[in-house]
Amino acid sequence: MNELEKMRAGLWLHAVCPPIGEALRRTEELVFTLNALPPSRREEREAILKRLFGRVGRNCCLHSPFHCDFGESISIGDDFVGNFGLTILDEAPVTIGDRVLIGPNVGIYTVNHALLPDQRAEGIMRSLPVTIGNDVWIGGHTVVTQGVTIGDGTVIGAGSVVTRDIPAGVVAVGNPCRVVRPVTEADRIAEVF
Predict the structure, then answer these.
(1) 130 - beta bridge partners?
(2) Are 144 and 176 in contact (CB under 8 A)?
(3) Residues 184/191, Cβ–Cβ less than 8 Å
(4) Of 7, 39, 110, 160, which has the fewest CB atoms closer than 10 Å, so is most exposed?
(5) Gap between the Cα atoms of 99 and 137, Å rounded
(6) What phi and psi, each to the nearest 5 degrees, are found at residue 144?
(7) Cα separation of 169 and 150, whole Å?
C-alpha cells in the first residue's frame, strides 16, 4: 500500500511524501484558478468543480474563496450551497447530501495529526470520513471534525464544533456540539411575505 492508499484507508501514515505533495499541488492550482474567476463566469467555475470533485450534483453554488486539499474525495449532492470561506480538508471522503446549506467560514476536517511533536514534525497523520446527510444546514464558523456523520434534516448552530455523530432531524449547537431539541412542525414559518 502506498501512502495515498494508506491515507484513504484511514491508517496512520507519513504524509510528507512526493505522491501526496503532487496531489496537493494539483488541487491547489485548480482551487487557485476557481477562486480567481468572477461569479459571472459560471460555466468555467462549474467545469473546474467537475474536474476538482469526485462528484458534483445539479445546482452547485460554491462561493469563493473555497479551499480543499485533494478535491477528488469530495462528493456533493444536488442543490448545494457552500458560502464564502468554506474549507474542506478531504484526506478521507467527504460526502455531502442533497439540499445542504453550509454557512460562511465553515471547516470540515477529515485529518488528525499525531499528538507527539516529533511525530507531528515527521508528518504522521490519519484521516477518517465525514458524512453530511440530505437537507442539512450548517451555520457559519462551524467546525466538523473527522469521522463525524450528521443526519438528514439536522441544523447545526453557528460556531459549533462537531466532534461526534449528530442524529437526523435535530437542532444541535455548541462546543462540543450537542443536541438541544428536535426539529418539529412547530418550527414551520406560517407567514412568508
Answers:
(1) 94
(2) no
(3) no
(4) 39
(5) 9
(6) -115, 120
(7) 10
Going by the DSSP 8-state scheme, the letter that residue 166 receives in this structure is B
**Contact criterion met (CB below 8 Å) for 76 and 55:** yes
Q: Which residue reads 457552500 in cell numbers?
A: 82
Q: Which region, left, alpha or beta, applies to residue 22 given φ > 0 means left and ψ of -120 to 50 means alpha? A: alpha
In this predicted model, what pLDDT tens digit does every residue of 5-46 receive, in sequence order? 899 899 999 998 898 999 999 999 999 999 999 999 999 999
pLDDT tens by residue, 156-187 = 999 999 999 999 999 999 999 999 999 999 99
Radius of gyration of the chain (CA): 17
Q: Which residues are catalytic?
A: 113
Strand order across the beta sheet in which 107-109 lies: 66-68, 86-89, 107-109, 143-144, 161-162
Q: What phi and psi values does residue 130 have, to the nearest 5 degrees?
A: -125, 135
Report the amino acid identity of residue 67. H
